[in-house]
Amino acid sequence: MTLLPRIFTDIKPDNVFNVLMIILCFYIFHFYYKHFTLINPLPGPISIPLIGIFRSNIDFNDQINKLNKIYGHNGIFEFYIAGRRLIVITKAEYAKKFLAPSVKDCKIYWKRFLKVELFEDLGFHQRGLTFNVNFNNWKFNRQIFIQSIEKISNSNETIKLLNELFEELSNYWIDINQNNYNSGIIDLTAWTKRFLNDLMFLLSTGKRSFAINYYYRKLKNEKITKNIMDSEHYIECLTYFLVNFRIAFIPKILRRLPLIRYHVDKFIDICNFLFERLLEVVREMREEIEKISNSNNFDMKQLKDNLLTSFIIANTPYESHPQKRVDSSLVKALNNDEISSILFDMLSGSTDSVCIM
């Protein structure tokens, strides 16, 4: 009983520091030993252990583009984020197998994302498509996603929505030019970003994000309604998630440090907010569908033609084009969490394309 207290009393600050330095030196040696003895080494910068090669004050996509110019001559290069090795493919022929729908390639290359502890804590790895590391769940979600995309791609409603949105955009441009708002200058990049955001929100959820309307009112210095501000806030949070994506790779041992803790907590809060808002949208749409389907004069044509509706009615009696000859494990309805995760992947994917622009 007296041995343990004696050990702790004999420990001096200098000894603790020496032990920590030995551990740190061993980790650095182990890190670089693994780096220089890789079986299949690829071009890329030499990284700093625990940190990587990325600077927090520079845009992630800009850094990737700079690395591609230096190391991506052969269409493939590597880099490290928080001690994790990541490989970037820049040639279409190399990426073909990863994106091919064949059963063989699907089984080999199904996992598109590595396991990250913070995403594991947030539940990202067990739902959706992008971050999902559960093969059966990913396979099920992928089947529903492809089926819904095919349905909406052949819909006249999709073409109608696209035309209406573009007509609205054209009217804004005409008004800006005639009244000389913003000196009559049309920033095509800024408008295109917001047009794509509006279109994706509309096709996926059936709701407007009011992105182009917000920008138009901002240029005219008009009053902006609460609904528009709420939608703009969601887009800003989604953009923050994508721009600060690398926060998720920070090792757990470093997350509670004073300079890092604030950013990690903010990142987690924004992730929770994004999913909660989508859950609300899914619940509202599900209630609306149940109300319509329970009416006496119910007709399938009464249901809205968007991806969210397709996700909700998939593998239910209300589905107009049920799946044929598929795995029995894929014939089940999606729950709200699964639907919100797929929507999140879609919206973040479109917003990520917008951020790159």
Automatic annotation (TrEMBL):
UniProt keyword list: Membrane, Transmembrane, Transmembrane helix
Keyword Cytoplasm: no
Parts of the chain that traverse the membrane: 16-33
Molecular functions (GO terms): heme binding; iron ion binding; monooxygenase activity; oxidoreductase activity, acting on paired donors, with incorporation or reduction of molecular oxygen
Keyword Lipoprotein appears in the UniProt entry: no
InterPro entries recorded: Cyt_P450_sf (IPR036396)
Top-level lineage group: Eukaryota
Name of the protein in question: Cytochrome P450
Organism field: Gigaspora rosea
